[in-house]
């Protein structure tokens, strides 16, 4: 990588500063000119999983109406092709393991009788930062129509976006007091104050305002215990507002209810100053925003509930994970399994292997209703210079 290459948080901060100057960041413009939401929750259509907050911002800032994002390799495996001349968008995520070829002492790859390279799963001592390049479905051809994809996603969904938002608010059990002219969170009283519903243009606007305040509420010492000591107008206060604003964007995208940072104009100059002085603050704010979203959306609880039910592998299972599909060839009495990936590589996995546990989690949660994580492998054939945030 070039010594002059800028890290991803720096690139994102610079892009946000430019958009704030132009008056069009997601904080200020929640709806596009075509009436569609400015932020559409990005997801991997193969796994059904979304992307963590900072990557979701990067992908969302491209402002495609289609939520689907894949690497070029994963798109080809799914029967789609990236259009000629399209540029990938770079994301960054943490890997805890890697699949590597088994080699001889001389460094030669070991292959089986069929000529297939034998592989092993290597667990890292600590998570390693990995980059990958994604393409939106609108950059591809031979893609399932968006209408059909969304219809399948919504099968069995009995609640409207507004009903989901109202349920989230009720499930939080937060103290919400209506009255007055301003919406705010009082940390001392641990209560949210918001104007009466009749003060808002519609019920959705009311829900958006409450969700934003719930993002502050989540930081209380009895919940996420986030520092919130800054006075109004201070940089510390603005940093907290940035976290709440990003969380509201993520939650609004998840529920499809949208977001509305109503008092954004008062913070844009401070946001710009923060991003200039410390570009890596956007990464810190995004991590905190993801924690807020996880708490309010109840994803940790969902994951714990799902893990209470054991899901065994069976021969013939096909499991999407890490932009490939694993087929279970055999199962053994000791619970080990023999699998084959989409490249034809075969391996035997024991229950204590990291890949075994990851495949079991993917089988339990195939639609990605648990905590949003990035499960995209590095695409070595694409160079970092191809990364382009929307101009």
Largest sheet: 4 strands, antiparallel
Strand adjacency order, main sheet? 9-10-11-12
Structural class: alpha+beta
Indicate the percent of residues in helices: 25-40%
Order of helices and strands: HHEHEEEEHHEEEHHHHHEEEEH
Strand content: 15-25%
Features:
391 residues; alpha+beta; four-stranded antiparallel beta sheet; three-stranded antiparallel beta sheet; 34% helix; disordered C terminus
What does this structure look like?
Helices cover 34% and strands 17% of the residues. It has helices at 8-22, 53-60, 72-77, 146-153, 161-172, 203-217, 235-255, 268-277, 281-297, 299-307, 354-364, and strands at 69-70, 81-82, 89-101, 119-136, 140-141, 175-178, 184-186, 191-194, 318-321, 324-331, 337-340, 346-349. It has 391 residues and is of the alpha+beta class. It contains eleven helices and twelve strands. Mean pLDDT is 83; it is low at 300-310 and 367-391. The chain has a domain at 160-297. InterPro entries: ArdC_N, MPTase-PolyVal. Residues 375-391 have a biased composition (Low complexity). Residues 11-109 form the N-terminal domain. Residues 366-391 are annotated as: Disordered.
In terms of topology, how is this protein built?
Blueprint: H1 8-22, H2 53-60, E1 69-70, H3 72-77, E2 81-82, E3 89-101, E4 119-136, E5 140-141, H4 146-153, H5 161-172, E6 175-178, E7 184-186, E8 191-194, H6 203-217, H7 235-255, H8 268-277, H9 281-297, H10 299-307, E9 318-321, E10 324-331, E11 337-340, E12 346-349, H11 354-364
Parallel strand pairs: 6-8
Antiparallel strand pairs: 1-4, 2-5, 3-4, 7-8, 9-10, 10-11, 11-12
Helix pairs in contact: 1-8, 5-6, 6-7, 7-9
Biased composition (Low complexity): 375-391
GO molecular function: single-stranded DNA binding
InterPro entries: ArdC_N (IPR013610), MPTase-PolyVal (IPR041459)
């Amino acid at each position: 990588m070039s010594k002059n290459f800028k890290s991803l948080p720096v690139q994102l901060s610079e892009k946000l500063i430019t958009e704030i100057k132009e008056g069009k960041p997601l904080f200020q413009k929640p709806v596009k000119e075509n009436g569609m939401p400015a932020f559409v929750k990005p997801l991997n259509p193969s796994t059904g999983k979304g992307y963590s907050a900072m990557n979701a911002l990067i992908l969302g800032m491209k402002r495609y109406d289609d939520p689907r994002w894949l690497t070029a390799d994963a798109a080809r495996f799914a029967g789609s092709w990236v259009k000629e001349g399209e540029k990938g968008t770079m994301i960054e995520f943490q890997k805890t393991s890697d699949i590597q070829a088994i080699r001889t002492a001389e460094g030669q790859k070991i292959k089986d009788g069929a000529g297939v390279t034998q592989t092993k799963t290597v667990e890292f001592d600590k998570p390693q930062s990995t980059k990958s390049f994604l393409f939106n479905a609108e950059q591809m051809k031979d893609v399932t129509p968006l209408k059909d994809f969304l219809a399948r996603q919504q099968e069995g969904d009995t609640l409207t976006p507004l009903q989901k938002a109202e349920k989230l608010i009720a499930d939080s059990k937060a103290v919400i007091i209506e009255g007055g002219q301003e919406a705010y969170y009082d940390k001392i009283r641990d209560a949210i104050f918001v104007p009466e519903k009749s003060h808002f243009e519609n019920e959705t606007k009311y829900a958006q305002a409450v969700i934003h305040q719930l993002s502050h509420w989540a930081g209380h010492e009895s919940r996420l215990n986030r520092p919130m000591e800054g006075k109004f107008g201070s940089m510390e206060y603005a940093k907290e507002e940035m976290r709440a604003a990003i969380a509201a964007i993520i939650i609004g995208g998840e529920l499809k209810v949208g977001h509305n940072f109503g008092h954004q104009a008062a913070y844009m100059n401070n946001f710009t100053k923060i991003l200039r002085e410390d570009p890596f603050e956007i990464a810190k704010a995004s991590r905190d925003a993801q924690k807020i979203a996880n708490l309010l959306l109840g994803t940790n609880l969902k994951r714990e509930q799902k893990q209470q039910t054991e899901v065994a592998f069976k021969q013939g299972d096909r499991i999407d994970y890490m932009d490939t599909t694993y087929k279970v060839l055999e199962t053994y009495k000791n619970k080990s399994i023999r699998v084959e990936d989409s490249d034809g590589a075969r391996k035997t996995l024991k229950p204590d292997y990291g890949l075994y546990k990851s495949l079991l989690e993917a089988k339990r949660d195939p639609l990605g209703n648990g905590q949003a994580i990035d499960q995209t492998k590095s695409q070595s054939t694409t160079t970092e210079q191809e990364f382009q945030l929307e101009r």
